[in-house]
Design a protein that fits this description.
CATH topology of chain A: Nitrilase/N-carbamoyl-D-aminoacid amidohydrolase
Strand content of chain A: 25-35%
Order of helices and strands of chain A: EHEHHEEEEEEEEHEHEEEEHH
Number of strands of chain A: 15
Oligomer: homodimer
CATH architecture of chain A: 4-Layer Sandwich
CATH superfamily of chain A: Carbon-nitrogen hydrolase
Chain lengths: 271, 271
């Protein structure tokens, strides 16, 4: 484990053309790498419009899908760790919302299938039923790398404090959430969730959103951010397409945990 | 269970004289009752300076202690539910940080002994060791009343998302935390914790702080607040001695849980 670690979060605009999305993701990964990022992170459903009908249509199988091949190839060429946001993944008759994670050798070192599906009827009138076309994953994902131990989950998964706690107890130092909150839940809850998960677990949290696109069927909030274990926002995007960077000092985790030993103070006899 | 419910939170100044504190608490409870509050809430260690040496000295036994008798008597006279902040409670050789809860008949219907003791060395230089003189409680506290089901825990207890979840699963609709965050943790974390516990659990949260007193050995943050299940702050004090009021609509809990069914979506097979 090293000390300072530069990461890049690509808040890309997702269109309804898969090829355009793949090309744009690759460009942004290249830019983030050129700027010195050793871990690069893409948003949720970066190759696909966020709509239940689109998911099966845009879905790919591992390892042959074209998006998956781009991720593998780019991670290897650029010698980076790549958290490939998420894409619709087909396996048999099922489709998952899946994040594929690659190492600098181009090896797939982990994948997370979104555990909690987003089935809601928001006060703004927005309804969404991921379960209409998606199946849920069934495990927490923590990937150990020589740079850091990464917890990876997707968007609505952050709503459940149990999962962030579980990833932390499995050793995750950075909790990474490719995500696409919307214009109702984003302004209301996005920031507090990333801050409080970081503070409760004394880890870094990363929210990697797609850029806000008013032409899309689902308008995502943007505001990709990185929060440190004390709850400070150390990098934050606005709503536009851009890359944000953070320098992560993993030793800060140990310092905070020494000062305020929350994890030691848990009463596991009671809950 | 009824619909709208007025509660009053007494952000009182705590002095080093027990009699003054008891008298002041009684005055504030009377004022809150006169203003229509049906549940009145006091802050943590409202009869006692927040210092480990003071705890044993100010401690009282149930039911004979003078603070406890005042709470019982006032709840009955004013016909209110009274969450008696907390006081040092002696039982045998042990001292606890305990919240006594009374109904309008003056009956003690619940008590919470702080589960998580505040033993920290903060970056500001502030060190505190509650465990030097206090013993921890060993259960979550939910008190059912005809007005609402109240979860009661104390200050540092809010740091642990597991406890708020447990109280919620036991049916609590309002999570009440008598508390005394300080000038390091208060500005950094107080608001986000009350907001996120409310949003994660889709309940109301109440933080009842003592007023900021720069003459005290431990300077509390103040900022008593009430947060609704969508994360909106519906009442908030500044740092001064004052009472804040909130009108709580318990039906809002059901509405939010219908729209965003977080509790149903928990994956209890995984955590």
């Amino acid at each position: 484990m090293e000390g300072r670690l530069k990461i890049g979060i690509c808040q890309m605009t997702v269109t309804n053309q898969k090829e355009v999305n793949i090309a744009r993701a690759r460009e942004m990964i290249e830019e983030a790498t050129a700027a010195g990022s050793r871990i690069v992170i893409l948003p949720e459903m970066f190759n696909c419009p966020y709509s239940t009908n689109a998911f099966p249509e845009f879905a790919e199988q591992y390892p042959t899908g074209e998006t998956i091949r781009m991720l593998k190839k780019t991670a290897k060429e650029k010698e980076i760790y790549l958290v490939g946001g998420s894409i619709p993944e087909k396996e048999g008759e099922q489709v998952f919302n899946t994040s594929f994670i690659f190492n600098p050798l181009g090896e797939m070192i982990g994948k997370h299938r979104k555990i909690h599906l987003f089935d809601v009827d928001l006060p703004s009138g927005l309804s969404f039923r991921e379960s209409k076309t998606l199946s849920p994953g069934d495990q927490a994902t923590v990937v150990n790398t020589p740079l850091a131990s990464l917890g990876v989950a997707i968007c609505y998964d952050i709503r459940f404090p149990e999962l962030s706690r579980l990833m932390t107890l499995k050793g995750a130092q950075i909790l990474i959430f490719p995500a696409a909150f919307n214009m109702t839940t984003g302004p209301a809850h996005w920031e507090m969730l990333f801050k409080t998960r970081a503070v409760d677990n004394q880890v870094f949290t990363v929210g990697a959103s797609s850029a806000r696109n008013y032409n899309a069927p689902y308008v995502s909030y943007g505001n990709s951010m990185v929060v440190d274990p004390w709850g400070n926002i150390t990098a934050r995007a606005d709503e536009q397409e851009r890359i944000i960077y953070a320098e992560i000092d993993l030793e800060y985790i140990a310092k905070i945990r020494r000062e305020l030993p929350l994890l030691e103070h848990r009463r596991v006899d009671l809950y």
